[in-house]
Amino acid sequence: MDANEEKHLREEESRQEPEKEASGLGPEEVRIETSVPETEEARIETWGPETEEARIETSWPETEEVQKAEPEQNIKGLWKGVVFFFLCFTLSFVLGALLCYFYFFGFPKRQENQAIHNGAASSSTLSDSNLENLESINLPRVTEKLRKIQDLLTDSYLYQENGKDAEEMIYKGFLTSLLQEDPYAAYYTKEEIEETRNRQKGIYKGIGAAVSEKEGGPLVEYVYPGSPAEKAGLLAGDIVLKVDGISVESLSLNYIVENLIQGLAGSSLEMVVNRNGEEVTLRITRGEVVIPGSEVGDVAEMLKLQSGAEKQNVTDPQKSEEQQPDVNRDVLAKLKPGDIGYLSLRGFYMEAVDSFISQYESDIDGKKKALIIDLRGNPGGDVEAATKLLDYFLPDHLQKPKRKDSDNKTVQMENRGESASSSVLEVTPNPNRQFEKDKTLLLYTEDKWGKGKDWYAKDGHEVDLPIIILMNQNSASASELFAGTMQDYDRAWVFGTQSYGKGIVQTVRSFPDGSAVEFTTHYYFTPAGRNIHKKGITPDLTVEMPEADQFTYLRDRTKDLQLRKAAESLYINFIHDKNSP
């Protein structure tokens, strides 16, 4: 063998050596790792945990065909993802729009119609969510309709639109929609809210007469001394028939007062009144009227203002008995100046309460043996003013009073024109309400959620005198609160007639432009847990004013039967023994 053959033989052996090593792996495993088609077993194995062979297989260099196919598959996958996302977004948008449409324009209206059709449109038959939908204004729909109306006016309205007035009337209309349930709801412009605050303080531009609603026209109950009404000859007891030629019989009292009677100082109005069956025409020039917040006096002197009345009682006893039934004239004859003080309060605003307290300290405190507080015709006012006066009269550490059995009786509403058999639903406070111990509770309020505020005495002052409070059907709101609280603590008796029955509190919310809205937000409760809304305060002694004296007693106190009865009771129960020798 020559050298060339020997070299060729070695090369042949070296080529055969790798084939022998490869053949040692076994034929099946070689097929798995080669490019032959995978068996089912091989395909399943690739999804399991990677074996050493699998890891080796994935690390092999990719062929040119695989490298070209992978980018194409990635691009196709990306486009599929984009299309899927777009379809999902579109579907979600459509479904959301449909839900919004049915929420605002579909379902609530159908539910409302169905409820009305079934006679079940009440809070007791509707769920909370449906009730909220029915009671809340649909702002998107209103806004769209207002836009359409504005477009119509812009295109076709013959005259010039006053945008500011239109806005004010929209707001007024919104609050007016609440009047059926809440007669105290109102929207005020900046000028109106200032005027309203002045009226609460007893300052306004008008004629100076107090009127009340009555069938046939407003009834003049009181004419203030020195007022334009008094100067023109208007008298208490007159019934207003016409103002500037407009019949007022079918108009609301608020409209008559605000739009026909009140006005700029110096302007005038013509008023036709019914006086004892005859029509009397008066010309009244409006002016600024200032109503005194409080009035102080001595009861003995007030009841003897007209000496002729005393002589008449002696010379004509039969007529005297008709004018003053059930009055012990002998007792009143023994009443002396300095025995009983008198204080009236026209309204519960801070200036009036401050005046009331000042007059008490200067004319009553330490100088009188008893006190009569006159709240007849007091329409109420500020809760803070009422609690300030209560704090002044009551000591700081009284236990919360308990309700008396008489407080649960149903009160008939004849004085407000309701049926004698009608009853009023009881408004009960939150039973879980907690109060501070050993502090005199003055009142507390609760909203529709059962939450509110408490007021407590804290000024360290009290009035230790026998007190009788006079009330009538026109005593309302804060005046009822004051009388009810004094009654709860047995610190005063109430004489007169059933009060008006306003046991709710209004809140005034102001806006940056000076306008404001007012609406009812809370019930109020006396310390014993009484709410007197639509019921009123029941007097401890009912004293009806004789019809003949209903409109004259403020001018002639000798005809004030309620004042006389209060004076008699105070004298017999608290003063008689002190005056005895």
Give structural notes:
The chain is an alpha+beta fold and 581 residues long. The chain is built from 19 helices and 19 strands. The strands form five sheets. A six-stranded mixed sheet has the order 10-11-12-15-16-19, sandwiched between helices. The N and C termini lie far apart (173 Å). About 20% of the residues have low confidence.
Write the layout of secondary structure elements.
Elements: H1 3-23, H2 27-33, H3 40-45, H4 52-58, H5 64-117, H6 128-135, H7 139-156, H8 163-176, E1 186-188, H9 190-200, E2 203-206, E3 209-212, E4 219-223, H10 228-232, E5 239-243, E6 246-247, H11 253-261, E7 268-275, E8 278-285, E9 287-290, E10 294-298, H12 299-302, H13 307-315, H14 317-323, H15 329-333, E11 340-345, H16 350-364, E12 370-374, H17 383-393, E13 441-446, E14 454-456, E15 467-471, H18 478-488, E16 493-496, E17 504-510, E18 516-525, E19 541-542, H19 561-579
Parallel strand pairs: 11-12, 12-15, 15-16, 16-19
Antiparallel strand pairs: 1-18, 2-9, 3-4, 5-6, 5-7, 7-8, 10-11, 13-14, 13-18, 17-18
Helix pairs in contact: 13-14, 17-18
